[in-house]
Amino acid sequence: MSEDFYVKKNSTEIPLMHSLDEIDRKILLALHQNSRISYTDLGQQIGLSRVAVQARINALAEKEIIERFTVVINPVKVGLSVSAFFNVDIEPMYLDEVAERLDQEPAVTSLYHMTGPSTLHMHGIFADMEEMEQFLLEKLYKMPGIVKVESQLLLKRYKSRMGMRL
Q: Residues 6 or more apart from 96 whose CB is under 8 A from it?
């Protein structure tokens, strides 16, 4: 890629997007690294006033470029030691219904409609194997249209990023 295609900072690259100018990209990079940074500190970092930073962040949120501000919790530190990925094959006519029901499950952390051999790719976090088994037996397997479920347990997390790569 050409040097003009990316803005680089601390080995993180932000793709140049047509709807974002350089200042918006700098704001997004800073918020991605620390979403708790104050408008004043962020303004000093990128050379804008607090009011200008706040206005730009509000505009990014209104355009839904920023979907939400959140916190990332370490599941092991709060007693959720089993992390599993599931490939779920579903009859097409039940896809939306199953996805909506799984969306309501607290253990389900992500859910994607995928191409390839499985219909849904899902991640879940559970306190222990018994809780995961209970989820499978009492909830997932009982949903209409479920054809097949494959699971993989996470052994070690090397990297986890919320949201898109900037």
A: none
